[in-house]
Amino acid sequence: MDERTMNEEFGTWLRKQRKEKRLTLRVVAERAKMGIGHLSLLENGKRKPKPESLAPLALALGVPYGELLQAAGYLDDRNLLFAHRLRSTRVERNMDIQEVAVACGLSPKTIKRWESGPKQLPANATVERLAEYLQVTPDYLLGFTDRPERTALDLRDLLEQENVSYNGTPLTDEQRNFVHDLIRKVLDLSSTTPSSSNSRRTNDPS
Q1: Which of 14, 108, 131 lies closest to 69 in space, CA to CA?
Q2: How many Cα atoms occupy the beta-carbon half-sphere of 110 within 13 Å?
């Protein structure tokens, strides 16, 4: 699909959304803080929407940001997908920008810029901090997976891999099996041994 056809399809979709909500061009333009002429050009398919205008336009229309990204043909853009997932995850968690910024050692202005569609993605360490606080995986924010959930590390699966090392030293098959058996014995022992708190309660004469 060429750009002209995509712009026309987006314009048709945009006009339909506006009319279904019984909003005038002027109202949507004022809410999105854009010129009414520019909005008219978008609806007529004569102008391609700029990435930074999509978030305020979604709010003005009352439609999901991701839906607007998809209609505008931007959902395949890795930077915009990051912006969409960062914002939608934050909103789902009922967190405001200030809270996320303080927790991750960032400025609210930086978070706002990223949620509007960054020109470049944050450093990996920053993405990891954001993901940890938002309780999702870095790969989800970056668009490498559609599963946001953090999964627990299973030591059994880890030890069954061929290339396992400890402190830079590869483990042999015998060593991996020994560690696996040791962990299993520790877990079995801990499940049959009363906890120290239970022991104290049992022996407490009072």
Answers
A1: 14
A2: 15
Average confidence (pLDDT) over 19-24: 94
Contact of 50 with 11, CB cutoff 8 Å: no
pTM score over 0.85: no
Mean predicted lDDT score pLDDT of the chain: 82
pLDDT, tens digit (0-9, with 9 covering 90-100), for 52-67 = 788 889 889 988 777 8
Q: What gap in Å lies between CA 80 and CA 69, rounded to an integer? A: 8
**Which of 66, 63, 59, 39 shows the shortest CA–CA distance to 50?**
39
Q: Looking at residues 149-176, what average pLDDT do you find?
A: 72
The gap from C-alpha 172 to its chain's centroid, in whole angstroms, comes to 38
Eight-class DSSP state of 46: S
Exposure string of 146-181, with b = 16+ CB inside 10 Å and e = fewer, is: eebeeeeeeeeeebeeeeeeeeeeebeeeebeebee
